[in-house]
Amino acid sequence: MSRYVDEGESTVWVLGDYGVRRHGDQDGNTGIAGVGAGHNFGLMQFNYSLGRTWTEEDLVQGGEVDTDTFFLMLEGIVPVHEEAGLFLTVGGFHQWGEADIRRGYLNSSGQRDFSTASPSMHGQGARVRMDWVDAWSASRVSLSPYADLSYSRIRMEGYEESGGDLPARFSSRSDSVTELRVGSELAMPIAESGFDFVATGNVTHRFDSDGVRTRGRMLNDPFTVNQFNIDGRDYDQTWVRAGVGVEGAVGPGDVSVMLNGTSRGEEEAGWLAASYSVTF
After folding, report:
1. Long-range contacts formed by 169-176: CB under 8 A, 24+ apart
2. Separation in Å, CA 191 to CA 119, 168, 188, 196, 216
3. Strand (E) positions, the chain?
4. What is the residue-wise DSSP string for 193-223?
5. Cα separation values, 232 from 83, 88, 159, 263, Å
6. pLDDT of residue 108
7. For residue 56, what pLDDT is reported?
């Protein structure tokens, strides 16, 4: 709701996130950079944003997966009962790009070897969120509860590796995720600074218990079964997020910076999110 403006007004923003994945056997980092704009038409505020995401994750035996994708996101914010602070947000996104994969393994001689590929990937998703802005306030502190339900589906096209002693052909795979978040945001003015201290906390539940299976066949391995069909990774289905930061006016617009962390789960272990927006 930080980008919601008054009727007839418009807003533009830039944003960036950087996070690290350290839960369980995960070892990598992620990034997001984007720009967006919105206009409040009265019955609804329409927002859109364009951006880029990237991830780097280390695998066993020196392997690595680097993804580089772009996204287009559209959303509408509807004031269900503006006087009471109730707002409904409905949105969706489309994502496209590719992954650079280096699979590490021990070859038939017991030496570390690598095979590589760069398959394309694309996905779609939707989100519904209800905010109750300033549902409770006292002593300059306000709380704004929210509930958020999201669904996404990402497809990686089939690909054939090159290089190494044991390249493989992998079938295409599509992985879908449905998550529910329930939490609250807190805001408190910082005396004589023009900034607010902000905090957020939520509980997330992922309805999917495991990832999609990996299927394919080895191309030139005479020592093992040619076909393979590997179980997907088991998900941690419930986790907690907490974040603290500041928001306030800088120059002609408003800046927001927040540091976030999660208990063991399927989000980044920690990330820094920053944005700058201008209303006109």
Report:
1. 169/216, 169/217, 169/219, 170/117, 170/119, 170/214, 170/215, 170/216, 171/215, 171/216, 173/212, 173/213, 173/214, 173/215, 174/212, 175/211, 175/212, 175/232, 176/151, 176/152, 176/208
2. 53, 62, 9, 9, 61
3. 10-21, 28-40, 45-58, 64-81, 86-106, 112-117, 120-132, 136-138, 141-156, 159-160, 168-170, 173-190, 195-206, 214-218, 227-230, 238-250, 253-262, 270-279
4. TTEEEEEEEEEEEES--BPPPEEEEESS-TT
5. 47, 35, 18, 22
6. 81
7. 96
Separation in Å, CA 158 to CA 48, 76, 172, 235: 31, 35, 4, 23
pLDDT at 221 over 70: no
Nearest to 214, CA basis, from 231, 236, 195: 231
Compute the distance between CA of residue 105 and CA of residue 212 in angstroms, rounded to an integer: 22
Tokens of 155: 């497809």
Rounded Cα gap, residues 136 and 83, in angstroms: 14
- Amino acid letter for position 130: M
pLDDT of residue 275: 97
pLDDT at 73 over 90: yes
The residue type found at 64 is E
Mean pLDDT of 118-131: 98
The answer to whether residues 256 and 244 touch, using CB atoms and an 8 Å cutoff, is: no
- Residue 17: CB atoms within 10 A of its CB come to 19
